[in-house]
Model the fold of this input.
Amino acid sequence: MLQKWGRDKEKKKEREDISQTVTTSGDPDTLSLLRPSLSLLKHRSFTACRHFTLTLASIFVHNIEFKRKKRELGSVAVFVRLNDREPQSQRPIPSVGVLNKSEMVLLKDIVPAAQNNIESKFIVLEKGSTTLEGQNRICLTLVADETAAVHLQLWGDECDAFNSGDIIHLTKGIFSYQHANLILRAGKRGRLEKIGEFTMSYVEIPNMSEIHWIPDPSNSKNYIQDYVISPHSRIFPLIP
Amino acid sequence: MASRLTLTPPFEAENALETSLREAFESLKPSLRPPFSVAIPTPDQYTLLNRAILHGVLTEPQFAKTHIKHLHALVTDGYATFVNLLLNLVNHLYPKLLASVKTQLVWLTDQTIGVLGIGYDAVLVSLLRQIAGADCGDGNLWLCSRLVTLFLEQWHCLLEDAPHVLSFALYTFLRVLTDHCRGVSVEKLETLKRLEIHLCVKIVREEFHLCLKIGRDFIRLLQDLVHVPEFRAILKDIVFNPCVFNVVGFQFKDVSQIYFTRTSSRYSLLRISPDMETQLRFLLTSIKLGHHKRHQLWFAKKFLNEPDKEFVIVDIVRFICCAHHPSNEIIQSDIVPRWALIGWLLTSCRSNHVVANVKLALFYDWLFFDERVDNIMNIEPAVLLMVHSVPNYVDITHALLEFLLHLVDNYDVERKGMMIKGVSSAFQLLVRKGVIRSLDVLISCPALPPGLKEGLKRLVAGGKVGSS
Done:
C-alpha cells in the first residue's frame, strides 16, 4: 500500500490550516471543533487525511490517558490538575492515627480507630468457617504481610470470594472492636479486592489483633499498644 | 461495552493486560470497521491498534477475518508487536480465558504461523506449556487435539522455519501420551491418542535429528511408553538397529550418544505451566526454610489436589533439578533449598509407580554424568537430600541409595560400565567442588545397612574395587 506524500507548498498550507482548528487541551469538547473539519475528508488529499487522523488519534490517546489518570488519582485530584488557574487548597497536616486520605500502611502500623481509612496489601493465611450473624454470613481469616499478621473478617459474599493463598488489596478498611474482637474489615465503605496469589512472604508474629490497646494519655482520640496478649493468633495456631 | 476475555469473578481485580486490550478496543472501535483508514499510524497509535485488533479477533468471531485483513494491511514490524501481545496473553491469562476466546486464540496462532509472524514459535511453546499434565478434562483434551492437528497441518512450514518447535512438541506429546495411555481406554481418548502417536512417530521416523536435539530425556520418555507397540518398535530400533535412523551429517551408531547428550533446561520447562513456574521459583527464591509450610500447602491444593495429579511431580522434580539453579547467595542463605522441596514432593507421593519415576527423574543426570558436558547443579539436589536426611529421615537416604545402586545395575545392562563411571564421577565432582565435604556421612552412617554402604563404596571407586 503506497502513500503519496505531497511536498507541494500548497498541500503543506492545507495541513497547517487543519491543524490549527484542533487543539489538544484534553477538553472532550475539542471533538465538536472537529465536526466541520470532518467534511474536509471528502475533498482533501491523503496527506491532509493522514494529518487529520493523526491529530484525531492523539485526542483518543489523550482521552484514554485522561480516564486512566482519573481512576488513578481520584476525581478530585484530576480537576485540580487540569484547572491550574485555581490555587491548590491547603490540607491540614494529619495527626498520628487520624488521616484525611488513605495511604498504604504496613500491618505493623495499623491502630484501632473509628476511621475507615486503612489501605493495605496482605495474603490470606487461613480461613475459618463461615457462620451466621443475624442475616449475614461472616468468616474470620488470618492474614499477614511481611511485617505482621491480623484477623480479617469477611462479610456476606466476601466469604465465598477469598481463599487461603489469595493476595488482597484493602481500601478504606477499618480496624476496630466488634463484640470484643479486634478485627480488620472492609466495612460499609471499604473494599476488598483479590490482586494475586501465592507470591508474597509473611510473618505470623506479631498479630495486631492479639494486642491490648489503651487510649493515648496525651491524645485520647488515639490508641497505643499496652501489652501483647499473645505473640501469634490464638484462633489460628502456628503450623509446626 | 466490549465482551470479556475472561470471566473475572466479583471481588477480583481485572488483569492489567486484559484491561489494556479492552480499553484499546473500546476506544478504537469505529476504526475497526471498513472502510479502514489508510493513514500510517504513529508508534503509539500502532500499538493501540494492535491491542484493539487482538481483542476484536478474540471476542468477535464473526468479524475475525475482517480484523485480520486490517492487521495485514497496517502491519509494519513483521507482526512482532501483535505476536508479543498474543504471547503475553497466553502466558498470563490462558487458564482463565472463556472457551470461545480460546478457540479464537488457537485459530489466530494458526494465522500467525501462516504469515511467519515474528515470535510465533514462542507462542506455540507457550501453548504447549498450557497442556496440563495428568489432566483428562475436556478443556485440556481439546487443547491437545487442536495443537496436534495444528502441528500436523503446518508440518512443512514448521520443519523449514522453526524445527526446534517440533522437538518441543515431541517432548510434550510423548509425556502427555503417558497420561492418555494410562488406565482404562476411553472412547474420547482413542482418536486423540491416534493423532498424537501419529505425530510422534512421524517426527521420530522422518526427522530423527530433532530427537537427538532433545538428549537423554528422550529415552526416559520413550521408556514410559514401551507398552505402546509403535514406541516399543522405535526403542528396539534405537538400541539394536540404530542405522535405521539416517541422520544427515551425523552417524547415529549407538543409544549412548543420546545418553551422553544433556537435555537443555528448556525441555524441563515445557511440562510446567507458567503459573506453576512462578510459584515454584517464588518458593525457591523468597521463602525462608521453616516458613514454607503454608506455601507448600497452597501449591499442593492448587496443582496436586487429585490422586492422579501425582504424576506431575516427576516433571516438577525434573524442573527443579534442571531449570532452576539458584545463585550462590541464595544457596548460602536460609531460603528454602531445592533438596527440601524435592524431599517434600517425594514423601507426598502415594503410588509406587510415581515414586520410582520421581527417583529416576532425580538421578537421571547422574547415570551418564560427564563433567565436560553436564552441570553440577543438576546433580546437587539428590546428594544434598541424601546427606541432609541422615539424622532424622534416614529412611529417605536408605531408599534413595538403594534405588541408585539398583538403577546402575539394571537400567541398561549393556552399558553398566558407563553408568558406574558416570555416577562415580558425579560423586567425585560433588566432593571436589565442596557441595558435600565428603561421602563419609553416608559411608559411615550407622543407620544404613552394611550391604548398602559396601555397594556405595564400590560405586564411588568406579567399580574397580572387588567384583560387582
Observations:
- Residues 237 and 244 of chain B are 7 Å apart (CA to CA).
- Chain B has a mean pLDDT of 93.
- The first helix of chain B runs from residue 16 to 28.
- Chain B touches chain A through 33 residues (CB under 8 Å).
